[in-house]
Amino acid sequence: MIDGNYKAFTNRLWNALARGFVAAGLSPNQVTILGLVFVLANCALYPFHRNPLIFGLGLAVSLVFDGIDGAVARLTNATSRFGGYLDAVVDRYQEAAIYFAIAWVTGWWALSFLALSGSLLTSYNKARTAVEVPIDNDAWPDLLERLERLVILTAALILDPFIPLPDALGGHVLYAGLAVLAAGTHFTALQRFWRARKLILRRSGDQDTLRNS
Predict the structure, then answer these.
(1) Does pTM surpass 0.70?
(2) What's the number of CA atoms in the CB half-sphere (13 Å) around residue 192?
(3) Is 120 within the bounds of a domain?
(4) Is residue 144 part of a domain?
(5) What CATH number does the domain containing 112 carry?
(6) Known catalytic residue: 91?
(7) Could you tell me the residue range of the domain that residue 24 belongs to?
(8) Residue 116, C-beta contacts closer than 8 angstroms, at least 6 positions apart
(9) Residue 211 belongs to a domain
(10) What is the rounded CA–CA span in Å between residue 178 and residue 181?
(11) Which one is catalytic: 66, 91, 142, 160?
(12) How many Cβ atoms sit within 10 Å of the Cβ of residue 45?
């Protein structure tokens, strides 16, 4: 939703952060892989220190690479189809690793699974639509896109040691954040399903199905 509705602003922000990487001579794909390495390293360390503040701050820094790689591509005119594909695959591995690390440390396997599956379905429901019909990649301003999901998750991790919650809310900010993500991502996946349905029916010419449904 943030990227979809405020793309011009977010692009300026990422472009400003990316100039140092351009000056260092890094390619967009190298920045993508570097971000993956940092995220995996943070996830690997979390079961040992078990400090959500450290994990959240580490992820906040690591996940900046998610926006910088595209900015590096724009600034160096190095955009490519494979770069976009690599970025999407790396994003999914990052999310899987993050939720696995959280579930391993907290024991909240079911809630982590719901948040992860909702995130994956949100991405898949858009990507699969592109297989069926041409789509505008930027015209999907849904509730919890990747940027919003990462902001909620890192904020919940960082705030967890400082803000106790009543047992009715799970007792932890992180638990509440995962619950919001679990519900919000599946809602977003359904948003994208209905948008995809309309696009596919309209562009495939199946107007009778669209009118009768």
Answers:
(1) yes
(2) 30
(3) yes
(4) yes
(5) 1.20.120.1760
(6) yes
(7) 2-206
(8) 95, 96, 99
(9) no
(10) 5
(11) 91
(12) 15
In a domain, 213, yes or no: no
| pLDDT digit string (tens) for the chain, length 213 residues | 555 555 676 778 888 888 988 888 999 999 999 999 999 999 999 999 999 999 999 999 988 888 899 899 989 988 888 998 999 999 999 999 999 999 999 999 999 999 999 999 999 999 999 999 988 877 787 899 888 999 999 999 999 999 999 988 889 999 999 999 999 999 999 999 999 999 999 887 655 454 444
Structure tokens given for 102? 């959280």
Q: How many structural domains is the chain composed of?
A: 1
Return the structure tokens found at 120.
């994956």
Q: 66: closest CA among 144, 147, 140? A: 147
Written as one string, the DSSP assignment of 8-55 is: HHHHHHHHHHHHHHHHTT--HHHHHHHHHHHHHHHHHHHHHH--HHHH
Number of Cβ within a 10 Å radius of residue 206 = 13
